[in-house]
């Protein structure tokens, strides 16, 4: 077996480990594109991560971003100008993503919209016969993640979740070391999200800015009176649209916690936190500590969100720490790891994408560009088995964040059944597994 084939086999086996219900279906690859056929992509949501999506696709051979879509025409015009300056070619603009779905010339949909749009847009794209790259978190609630899996399978589409560290050779190497027992039996993972999140104030209500289709921006979520507290970035800190920082930056780390421990969703969850710094309009906690217990596997996940000034842990402020009975492994960011062995914490193996990893790839060749390259390869071959971040990871990593948020909001320890994806004898918590959708923007209860 070649090194590349071995890598793919390893990624496929570990990408969705921990949940028998989420095994990928038997799939017979079929070529949808020739090696040099151009793939046309549309990027939906261009204010933040969408800029990276544009760059990621345009870095791929025979891939062309042909359409930018955003409910804010002001952003679209700015994006069109920047696109022309950078790539010396024109790009079409569209405010309504439904017209993008109807465009037969578009092969791939890339989603960098607010969280509350991710699942429905993914489902619509699958129904329209388009493959999807969806930014983290894949879903806004747990039910949506399951619907995304059903849509990808029913309509036979390629869906990649934007957890780009899965395409880092160094992180793949770190996971393989843990699977081989390098730090012993790995029993605990710690996720770290220590990010600078400042005071956003309270801007109050105001008229909808000219050029913004606020109804489309709202989509499946409740339509609140317009405020700049939401549009364009601070929706992250409001429950109807975002999921706090554990559901923002934190999805990279929830995903890696589960991947490294080789587990699915937990059976017991507790969370505690709050707002301690700013008297602003954020609804989500500034500080949040969540514990996810796996009694049957004798494993546990600790996850912590901290804002503003804080100390690093193990040298990392955004990353993961894995604890085994022979040592521990620290992941710093997206493409670097270190190990420490024994009671004296003797430095062991380490790697990054700058060449220390076994792959010898240049630093950054994993990460974002590598993740887009992996997606495009899967699209060309119409082979979901080679995806580094398949749709199942979107459901699981997002689901872990959602469970922690539900436990925080209800203020009690929760028991969860991963097989039924319901809470145990807790109708109040079950209501938070889904939401009420606005007419015309409903996520189906069943695909």
Written overview of the protein:
It comes from Algoriphagus antarcticus. GO terms for molecular function: nucleotide binding. This is Secreted protein. Keywords: Signal. The structure is a single chain. The chain has 12 helices and 16 strands. With 447 residues, the chain is an alpha/beta fold. The protein has 2 domains: 176 residues, 3-Layer(aba) Sandwich (Rossmann fold); 233 residues, Dihydrodipicolinate Reductase, domain 2. The strands form 2 sheets. A 10-stranded mixed sheet has the order 14-13-12-11-7-10-9-8-15-16. α2 packs across α10, α5 runs parallel beside α6 and α6 packs antiparallel against α11. The longest helix has 20 residues.
Give a summary of the structure in a few sentences:
The chain has helices spanning 3-15, 49-58, 73-87, 97-102, 115-127, 142-154, 169-179, 214-218, 250-261, 367-381, 391-410, 427-430; strands spanning 39-44, 63-69, 92-94, 108-111, 131-134, 159-161, 186-195, 268-274, 287-294, 299-307, 318-324, 327-332, 336-341, 346-352, 414-417, 422-423. The protein is an alpha/beta fold. The protein is globular, with a radius of gyration of 21 Å.
């Amino acid at each position: 077996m070649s090194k590349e084939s071995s890598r793919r086999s390893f990624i496929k086996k570990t990408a969705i480990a921990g949940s028998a219900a989420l095994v990928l279906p038997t799939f017979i690859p079929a070529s949808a594109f020739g090696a040099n056929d151009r793939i046309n992509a549309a990027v939906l949501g261009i204010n933040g991560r969408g800029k990276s999506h544009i760059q990621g696709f345009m870095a791929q051979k025979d891939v062309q971003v042909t359409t930018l879509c955003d409910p804010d025409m002001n952003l679209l015009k700015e994006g069109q100008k920047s696109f022309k300056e950078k790539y010396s070619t024109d790009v079409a603009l569209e405010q309504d993503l439904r017209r993008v779905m109807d465009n037969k010339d578009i092969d791939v949909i890339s989603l960098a919209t607010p969280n509350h749009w991710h699942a429905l847009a993914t489902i619509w794209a699958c129904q329209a016969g388009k493959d999807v790259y969806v930014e983290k978190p894949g879903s806004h609630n747990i039910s949506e993640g399951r619907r995304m899996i059903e849509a990808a399978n029913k309509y036979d589409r390629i869906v990649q979740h934007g957890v780009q560290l899965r395409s880092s050779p160094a992180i793949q190497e770190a996971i393989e070391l843990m699977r081989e027992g390098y730090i012993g039996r790995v029993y605990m993972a710690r996720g770290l999200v220590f990010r600078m999140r400042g005071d956003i104030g309270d801007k109050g209500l105001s008229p909808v800015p000219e050029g913004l289709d606020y109804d489309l921006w709202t989509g499946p979520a409740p339509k609140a009176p317009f405020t700049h507290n939401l549009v364009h970035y601070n929706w992250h800190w409001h429950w109807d649209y975002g999921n706090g920082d554990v559901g923002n930056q934190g999805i990279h780390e929830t995903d890696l916690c589960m991947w490294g421990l080789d587990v699915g969703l937990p059976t017991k969850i507790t969370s505690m936190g709050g707002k301690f710094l700013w008297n602003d309009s954020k609804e989500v906690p500034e500080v949040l500590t969540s514990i996810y217990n796996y009694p049957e596997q004798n494993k546990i996940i600790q996850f912590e969100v901290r804002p503003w000034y804080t100390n690093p842990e193990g040298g990392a402020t955004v990353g993961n720490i894995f604890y085994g009975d022979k040592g521990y492994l620290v992941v710093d960011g997206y493409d670097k790891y270190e190990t420490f062995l024994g009671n004296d914490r003797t430095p062991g193996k380490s790697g990054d994408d700058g060449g220390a990893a076994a792959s010898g790839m240049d630093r950054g060749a994993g990460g974002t560009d590598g993740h887009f390259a992996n997606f495009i390869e899967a699209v060309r071959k119409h082979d979901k088995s080679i995806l580094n971040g398949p749709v199942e990871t979107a459901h699981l990593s997002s689901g872990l964040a959602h469970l922690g948020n539900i436990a925080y909001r209800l203020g009690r320890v929760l028991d969860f059944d991963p097989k039924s994806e319901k809470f145990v004898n807790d109708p109040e918590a079950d209501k938070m597994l889904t939401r009420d959708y606005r007419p015309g923007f409903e996520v189906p209860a069943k695909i």
